[in-house]
């Protein structure tokens, strides 16, 4: 059992490259969206 199959991802196959890629894309996309929203709210970006 790898370390990726512990914690909140306690399902079988949580450590597969596909699952890791999907979750990392979702997390990085959410971070990017928050940064863009923050810049637009501060009137830095048109």
What this model shows, in words?
With 46 residues, the chain is mainly alpha-helical. Helix content is 54%, strand content 0%. It contains one helix and no strands. It has one helix at residues 17-41.
What is the structure about, briefly put?
The chain has 46 residues and is mainly alpha-helical. Helices cover 54% and strands 0% of the residues.
Coarse shape: elongated
Low-confidence stretches: none
What about the largest sheet? none
Strand fraction band? under 5%
Secondary structure category = mainly alpha
Helix percent reads 40-55%
The overall strand count is 0
Please provide the ordered H/E string of secondary-structure elements: H
Cα(first) to Cα(last) distance is 48 Å
Tally the helices.
Answer: 1
Instruction: Let me know the average pLDDT.
Output: 80
Radius of gyration: 16 Å
SSE inventory with pairings:
Blueprint: H1 17-41
List keywords for this structure.
mainly alpha
